[in-house]
Each structure stands twice: as C-alpha cells, then as structure tokens.
Amino acid sequence: MIYSSNNKNNVNLAAKKILNGEIIIYPTDTLYGLGVDATNCKAIDSLNKLKKRTQKYSIIISSIDDINKYAYISQKKKQKIKKIIPGPYTIILNKKKGHLSSLVSLNSETIGIRIPESDFILEVVKKCDKPIVTTSVNYHGQKSIQDIKEIEFIFRDIDIFKKEKITNSIGSTIIDMTKDSTEIIRYGDGDFVV
Questions:
Q1: pLDDT per residue as tens digits for the range 160-187
Q2: How much is the pTM?
Q3: DSSP state of 93
C-alpha cells in the first residue's frame, strides 16, 4: 500500500507499523529507506531476509542530543556534527553497549548514525521513541531503487510512504569520527570538507 508522507496522520501509521515489528519504506533527504525498529531482533531478522543478506545497519535518531544514548562523542565532534545535521550524512562513531539489537552492528564496535533533513521520518522516530534501522531499498548486490513504481512492483508486500519530490541521489556522505581525525569513507550528497 502507498501512503503520502505529506499527510500528518501517516506519521502515526508508520510509527505503529514500526512498533508492531513491520518493515516500512520511507523517504529521506537522499534515497528511500527500508526501516524497522532498531531494538527489535525479529524485525531486523525479517529485514535481513528481505535484503537477502545479514549486514551492519545505520540508525536514524531524531536529535543530536540522542547521539549520547548510542555512541561516544566528544563535545568538539558534537559541535562539528551540529553544523551539518540534519542533512545527507551518516556519521560513524564508537558504539555504546545496550539499547540496540545486537543485529544492528553485529560484532562491530562502531555505529552509523543518521539525522536526515526529512520531517516525516524524524517525526516517526520521535513517535516511536526509539531509533529505526535504515538501509537503501534494494536487494544485496543491486543498485538502490529510487523510482517509486519500481519500488512498489518489487517490494509489493511492504507499505510505502511516498514523497512528492523525486531526487536524483547518490546516497549520504559517510564520515568516520571514531578516531581523533575525521575521515570521509564515501562521498554522497553531502559536501563535507575534512
């Protein structure tokens, strides 16, 4: 089923689906994302089966202040992040124990964090009062799908929250802040300068 992400009522619907352990497809400021509750092992297992791969995932949180719940961050790095977020960036940080399902980062000591410039999904995360896993809409080894008709055809059993504006995105810029120096892992839509 396709729902408009412009309809405020659909924030409640998307949050309800996430909290019920369902997978949703939603818009971000870059690509469409597949999302589930980041604390729900069963939901993440379903996502892995859908993607045909077990992988590490990034999470979406709704505010910079929430970073401290899931990762270690210095005040200096927080100030740097505040300049670019919300925006098309994934920030890699050293992970804190607890809170999230072990399937989010598997055996890794790091966690990818996103706060996209996308009111709809940030409102859904706030409503859920927990982060959601985020990953591009595709099967393992294939390109991310951006065309809504193609998404609907391939992922016909998953509810889609559609945005009106189509973007030609290459994904988020991934920034590693796990060490003293900052490193760009992948250039995407965000034009961060180290």
A1: 999 877 668 889 999 999 998 899 999 9
A2: 0.93
A3: E
